[in-house]
Amino acid sequence: MLSIKSKTGRINVVRIVALVFVFIISSSYAYASQSTITEAEGYACMGEDRSRRQTEQAALDAAKRNAIDFASTYMTSETHVKNFELEKDLVSAYANATVKIIKELEKSWYKDVNAGNCFRVKIKAEVIPDEKAMEKVSKRKDVADDPSAPLHVRLWTDKKEYERGDRMRIYIKGNKPFYARVIYKDTAGEMVQILPNPYRNENYFQGGVIYEIPSGNDRFDLEISPPFGEENISVYASTSPLGDIDLHSQGGVYFVKTKAKDIGVRTRGITLTGESTDKSGYASEFYEDKAEVKTRSAK
Fold it and tell me: Any idea what DSSP says for residue 165?
C-alpha cells in the first residue's frame, strides 16, 4: 500500500496501494496493448433471403470490416512507416485484427429504390491487431523510440521492489506526443488517479521526454505503508484526448468514482479529430497496459 501524503500533511482518506507502473525499461515493444480507435459505417439490405435481424447483423459486420480496413490504412500511412518489413508486419497484424464496439453512434432503417428495405449502422470501434503479428514488431529494436511507429508508452519506477517507508518515483515516456491517464486500484477496490491531478492538470505529453511522478506542481509524495502485497495499476494513452471519467478531488489526487468495469470504455470515448489521408474519417492510436507491483515490510 501507499500512503499518499500532501506537501502540507497527510491526505486523510487517501491511504492506498503501491502506485507502480511496472514497466521496466527495455527494448521490448508492448504489442499486446496496441490498438486503433476509429468510426465506421456499414450497410445491408434485406432482399429475399434475410430477416430484419440478419440484415442488421450484416450491416454491423460490414461496419467492423470497414473499421479494420480504415485502421490498417491509417497505421501504414498516418504513422509514416518507412521501413518495408515493419510496414509488412503492421499490414499483417491489422489484416487479422479483431473489433470491439465501443458505441453504436447511429442506426436506422431506410428504403432503397432498387434494393428495398435496408439498414445502416455507424459505430465507434477499437481495432485490435493480431497478437502474433505484432509480436514480430515487438522484437524490432528500431521501433520503441521511433515517432513514426505506432504509439508506445513506457512506464517504470526508480526501484523494482519497495519496503515500508520507501518513497516511490514513477517515470513515463512515449515515442510520440500523447495524452495519458494513470490510475491505480488498491486492495479494497478503491481507485485513485494520480495523473492528471488537481495541481498538475496537463494531460498532454511530448514524445521522447521522460516525465516524473511526483514532480513539478504535484502536491503529494508516494510512501509505502501496510498492508503489503500486489497492487493493480493501469495506464491509458492515446494520440487524441481521452474520454472523461467521474472524478472527485481529494487533496493532491483524484478519487475515481466511475466503476472499474466502465473506465476502459469511457476512456476510449475519445473525440476523433486531426489530419487524415482518408478524409472519410479519422482514427486515433490507443495504448493501454496493466501491471502489478509488490510491496513488503522492511527486512
Answer: T
* Domain architecture of the chain: domains with CATH: 2-27+144-296 (no CATH), 35-138 (3.30.1660)
pLDDT at 6: 65
Is the backbone peptide bond immediately before 227 cis, with ω within 30 degrees of 0? yes
Per residue in 143-157, is it b (16+ CB within 10 Å) or e — as a string?
bbbbeebbbbbbbbb
Strand stretches in the chain, DSSP E: 2-6, 9-16, 34-45, 98-112, 116-128, 153-157, 162-163, 170-174, 178-185, 191-195, 204-205, 211-213, 220-224, 230-238, 247-250, 253-256, 283-296
Torsion, Cα 139 145 151 157, to 10 degrees, reads 90
The better pLDDT of the pair 143, 37 is held by 37
**Rounded distance between C-alpha atoms, residue 110 and residue 297, angstroms:** 66
CB 130 within 8 A of CB 93: yes
**DSSP of 57-84:** HHHHHHHHHHHHHHHHHHHHHTT----H
pLDDT tens figures, 12-32: 333 333 333 332 222 233 334
Please name the amino acid found at residue 35: S
CA distance 208 to 211: 10
Q: What is the DSSP letter of 31?
A: G
Compute the radius of gyration of the chain from its Cα atoms.
22
Is the CB of residue 14 less than 8 Å from the CB of residue 235?
A: no
